[in-house]
C-alpha cells in the first residue's frame, strides 16, 4: 500500500516543467495528487484497516455469547485463543489444520484448472470464425450469474436421488455402479472443485483474452514466416508475452479461491463435510456457530498472516524474475 | 512502470482481500434498556413459519395492518429464513443495529439471554401483556434459563408427532400407527422395499438431528448436559440415543440412505409423493397441504416411546418446540414493542395466527378454541402438556446444536455410504464434539 502512495510520481515529467514558470503553484501541484487520494485512503482505513485492527484485538479476548453485545468488556485472554487454534493434538487445532490442508489442495487444483481452461479458451477464440462472438458471450455466463443462484442450482444437480449429475452419470451413461453421494462424504471435494472451476475459469478467460489483444499480430506473422508451428508460437510468443498478466491473474485467483466462502456455504450449509471443509467456512463455524468469536478471530489473523506471507514471497519472486528478464 | 503499478495495485488488492477474512463482527453497543425516541414505527423480524416467505407475508400483513389501525404504529415486516436467522440476530447483537421485535427459535432462548441483548421479561413487563399465567407452563420453560427472568415470550408452540401416510400403511397391511420403537422398526421393515421407505430423516439438518436425539436421549435417561450446565455428550444414554437414531438407516434399513444429505425438508416431499411412509415432524399440516396432500391422506400419532405410553422422564417423546417473541433491549420504541407483543399474544390474534400456521397457541385461553380440536393438533397439544421437555436451557445450547448435530450428520453420512455404525464409532464422534465444546 506504501507503493500505492508513490503513484503520483508517474506524473513527474509535468511537474518538472512547473517550477520554471510558476513557483507558487508548486506546492499545490505536488500535494494535489495526495489530496485526491485522501478520500480513498480514509475509506481504506475505515473499511479495511480498522476491521483488521478490531479483529486483531478480538483475537486476544475471551469473546463468547456473554460478551458479544459489548465486546470491549470481554476479559483479555492473552494468547489462549492462538494456543487453542494451533494445538494440533486437540480437536479444535486438529480440525483447523485439516481444513487448512483441504483448502491448500482445493486451491491448487482449482486455480490450476481455471487457469488452464481459461487460457486454452482464450487462445482458441483468438482466431476469427463464425459464431465466435456468441461463444465468447456464452463463456462469460458463469461469471455474470449471481453466485448464490448458480451454486444453489449446482446443489440441486448434485443431489443423489433427484439430481441431474447422477441421472446422467448413472442412469444414462452407466459410468457408476450405484448412484454416488456428492454433497456428503469424500465426493464432496469433487463437487466443490467442480463448482469452483465452473465459476472461476471465465475470469481467467476474460483476463487472458484482454492480455492476448496486446500481443502484436506481426510477431506471429514473422514467426510463421520463419516456420514456427502453432505450438511453437504459443510457447515462444503467447505465453512469454502473457507473463505479467498471468502473474496478476494467478495471484488474484489464488486469493479468491483460498478465501472462498460463498460456494461451500451455499452448497453445504453451515457445517461442511470433512472432505470439503474449506478454511473460511471453518472459521465461520468456529465464530458464528459455536459463538466463540475470540478463537475465530485468532484463526482469521493466522489466515491473514499466511496469505500475506504467500503473497509477499510471490511478489518478491516474480519481481526478481522480471528484473532478470530485463537485464 | 506499468508492471510496477500492476504489482502495487495487486498488493493493495491482496491486502484488502485477505482482510475480508478477518472482518467478522466488530463494534460495540451502547447499553440502555430501550427508549421511546421513535414511537411511530417498529421493525419486526419474523421467522419463516409457512411453506415460503411469501406465504408468511400474506398471513402477517393483514394482522400488522390491524395493529396499525389500533395503535397508529407502523410495523415494518421482514421475514427471515431459518438458515439465516441466528446469524442475523448475532450480527444485530454485536452491531446494536437490529429490529425492535423479533422471533427466535425457543431453543436459543438461553444462549441469546446470555448475550444480554434481549429485554428481560420481569413481572412488570409481563403485566403489560396480561401476566405470566396466560401462558402454558412448558412453553414458558423454553423462554430462558430457569433462574432468570425469561428472555422472550412464547408465540407459537409445537411438538413432534409421528405423521403417517395412510395409503402406504394400507398397502403394507398395517392397520394402526406404531406406539413403540420396536413396532416402528417391525412396521418399517414391511414397508421398506421396492424404492419405498418407512421413515424420513433430515440427516444434514443439524437442528433437526438435535431435536430427535434429545427426545431419544431422555428415553435413555440422558440429558446431554449435567445439572450445573456442563456438556455431557458421552454418557451411555447419549451414545445409545444417537446410535438408535442413526441405526434406523445403518442397521434397520428403514430410512433411505439418500436422507443423509437432506436438510431442506425433502423428507416431507417424499412423504407427500408416497415414497416415505412416516416422518417425525412438528406441525407439518400446512406443508403437506402446499405439497398437494389432502388432510385425509395422512394420520397423526404420538412419537413412539419404549413403553408405548408417552409421559414424563423416560417416556418423553418430544422437545418443546416453538417460536418465542423477543424485544431488542436497545429498541427505540419500547412502549410500542410491548404493545406489539401484547397484540400478537392476545387471545384473538393467537387463534388467527396459530390456525394459519398449524401450530398450537401457547396462550391457554386461545387453546380452548374449537379450531384446535383437530386430531393433529390434539396430539400436539397433548404432547406439549404431558410428554414434552424443553431442550436444556443453558447458555451454550447453540454450540450443542452445532457440535452434536454435526456428529449425527457425520454418522449418517457414514451409514449412507454403507459404513458400519458401532457404539465405539458413535462414542468417538460424541467425544470429539464434547472436546470441542470444552476447548471453546
Automatic annotation (TrEMBL), chain B:
InterPro entries per the UniProt record, alphabetical: Bact_solute-bd_prot1, SBP
Pfam assignment, any one: SBP_bac_1
Record's signal peptide: 1-23
CDD domains linked to this entry: PBP2_TMBP_like
PANTHER family to which the protein is assigned, alphabetical: ARABINOSE-BINDING PROTEIN-RELATED (PTHR43649), DIACETYLCHITOBIOSE BINDING PROTEIN DASA (PTHR43649:SF12)
Protein name (Swiss-Prot/TrEMBL): Sugar ABC transporter substrate-binding protein
Keywords, sorted A to Z: Signal
Amino acid at each position: 500500500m506504501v507503493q500505492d502512495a508513490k503513484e503520483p510520481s508517474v506524473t513527474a515529467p509535468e511537474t518538472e516543467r512547473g517550477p520554471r514558470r510558476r513557483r507558487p503553484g508548486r506546492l499545490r501541484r505536488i500535494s494535489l495528487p495526495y489530496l485526491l487520494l485522501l478520500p480513498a485512503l480514509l475509506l481504506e482505513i475505515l473499511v479495511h484497516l480498522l476491521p483488521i485492527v478490531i479483529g486483531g484485538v478480538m483475537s486476544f479476548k475471551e469473546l463468547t455469547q456473554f460478551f458479544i453485545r459489548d465486546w470491549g468488556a470481554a476479559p483479555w485472554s492473552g494468547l489462549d485463543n492462538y494456543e487453542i487454534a494451533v494445538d494440533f493434538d486437540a480437536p479444535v487445532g486438529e480440525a483447523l489444520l485439516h481444513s487448512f490442508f483441504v483448502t491448500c489442495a482445493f486451491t491448487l487444483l482449482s486455480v490450476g484448472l481455471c487457469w488452464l481452461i481459461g487460457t486454452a479458451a482464450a487462445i482458441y477464440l483468438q482466431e476469427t470464425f463464425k459464431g465466435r462472438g456468441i461463444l465468447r458471450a456464452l463463456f462469460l455466463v458463469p461469471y455474470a450469474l449471481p453466485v448464490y443462484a448458480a451454486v444453489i442450482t449446482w446443489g440441486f444437480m448434485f443431489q443423489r436421488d433427484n439430481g441431474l449429475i447422477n441421472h446422467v452419470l448413472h442412469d444414462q451413461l452407466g459410468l457408476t455402479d450405484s448412484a454416488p453421494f456428492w454433497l456428503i462424504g469424500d465426493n464432496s471435494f469433487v463437487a466443490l472443485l467442480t463448482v469452483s472451476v465452473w465459476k472461476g475459469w471465465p475470469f481467467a478467460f476474460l483476463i487472458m483474452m484482454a492480455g492476448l489483444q496486446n500481443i502484436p499480430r506481426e510477431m506471429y506473422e514473422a514467426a510463421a514466416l520463419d516456420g514456427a508451428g502453432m505450438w511453437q508460437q504459443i510457447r515462444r510468443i503467447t505465453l512469454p508475452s502473457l507473463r505479467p498478466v498471468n502473474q496478476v491473474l494467478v495471484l488474484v485467483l489464488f486469493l479468491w479461491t483460498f478465501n472462498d466462502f460463498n460456494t461451500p456455504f451455499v452448497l453445504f450449509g453451515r457445517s461442511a463435510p470433512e472432505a470439503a471443509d474449506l478454511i473460511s467456512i471453518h472459521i465461520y463455524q468456529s465464530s458464528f456457530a459455536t459463538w466463540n468469536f475470540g478463537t475465530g478471530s485468532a484463526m482469521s489473523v493466522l489466515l491473514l498472516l499466511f496469505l500475506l506471507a504467500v503473497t509477499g514471497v510471490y511478489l518478491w519472486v516474480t519481481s526478481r524474475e522480471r528484473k532478470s528478464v530485463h537485464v | 512502470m506499468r508492471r510496477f503499478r500492476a504489482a502495487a495495485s495487486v498488493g493493495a488488492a491482496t491486502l484488502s482481500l485477505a482482510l475480508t477474512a478477518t472482518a467478522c463482527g466488530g463494534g460495540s453497543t451502547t447499553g440502555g434498556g430501550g427508549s421511546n425516541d421513535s414511537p411511530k414505527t417498529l421493525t419486526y423480524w419474523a421467522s419463516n413459519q409457512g411453506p415460503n416467505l411469501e406465504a408468511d407475508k400474506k398471513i402477517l400483513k393483514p394482522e400488522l395492518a390491524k395493529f396499525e389501525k389500533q395503535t397508529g404504529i407502523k410495523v415494518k415486516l421482514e421475514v427471515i429464513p431459518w438458515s439465516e436467522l441466528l446469524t442475523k440476530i448475532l450480527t444485530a447483537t454485536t452491531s446494536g443495529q437490529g429490529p425492535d421485535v423479533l422471533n427466535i427459535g425457543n431453543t436459543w432462548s438461553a444462549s441469546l439471554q446470555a448475550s444480554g441483548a434481549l429485554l428481560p421479561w420481569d413481572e412488570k413487563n409481563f403485566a403489560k401483556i396480561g401476566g405470566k399465567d396466560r401462558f402454558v407452563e412448558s412453553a414458558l420453560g423454553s423462554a430462558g434459563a430457569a433462574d432468570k427472568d425469561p428472555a422472550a415470550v412464547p408465540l407459537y408452540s409445537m411438538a413432534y408427532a409421528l405423521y403417517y401416510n395412510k395409503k402406504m400403511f394400507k398397502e403394507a397391511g398395517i392397520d394402526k400407527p406404531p406406539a413403540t420403537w420396536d413396532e416402528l422398526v417391525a412396521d418399517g421393515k414391511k414397508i421398506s422395499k421396492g424404492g419405498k421407505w418407512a421413515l424420513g430423516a433430515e440427516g444434514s439438518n443439524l437442528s433437526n438431528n438435535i431435536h430427535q436425539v434429545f427426545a431419544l436421549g431422555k428415553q435413555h435417561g440422558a440429558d446431554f448436559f449435567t445439572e450445573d450446565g456442563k456438556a455431557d455428550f458421552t454418557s451411555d444414554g447419549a451414545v445409545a440415543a444417537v446410535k438408535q437414531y442413526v441405526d434406523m438407516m445403518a442397521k434397520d434399513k428403514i430410512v433411505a440412505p439418500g436422507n443423509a444429505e437432506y436438510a431442506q425438508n425433502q423428507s416431507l416431499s417424499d412423504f407427500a409423493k408416497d415414497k416415505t411412509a412416516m416422518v417425525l415432524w412438528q406441525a407439518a399440516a400446512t406443508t403437506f397441504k402446499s405439497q398437494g396432500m389432502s388432510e385425509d391422506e395422512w394420520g397423526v400419532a404420538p412419537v413412539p416411546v419404549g413403553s408405548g405410553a408417552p409421559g414424563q422422564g423416560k417416556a418423553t417423546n418430544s422437545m418443546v418446540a416453538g417460536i418465542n417473541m423477543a424485544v431488542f433491549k436497545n429498541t427505540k420504541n419500547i412502549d410500542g414493542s410491548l404493545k406489539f407483543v401484547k397484540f400478537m399474544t392476545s387471545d384473538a390474534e393467537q387463534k388467527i395466527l396459530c390456525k394459519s400456521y398449524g401450530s398450537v397457541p401457547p396462550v391457554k385461553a386461545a387453546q380452548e378454541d374449537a379450531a384446535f380440536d383437530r386430531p393433529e393438533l390434539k396430539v400436539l397439544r397433548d404432547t406439549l402438556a404431558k410428554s414434552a421437555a424443553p431442550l436444556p436451557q443453558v447458555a451454550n445450547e447453540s454450540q450443542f446444536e452445532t457440535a452434536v448435530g454435526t456428529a449425527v450428520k457425520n454418522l449418517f453420512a457414514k451409514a449412507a455410504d454403507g459404513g458400519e455404525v458401532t457404539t465405539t464409532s458413535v462414542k468417538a464422534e460424541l467425544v470429539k464434539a464434547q472436546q470441542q465444546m470444552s476447548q471453546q
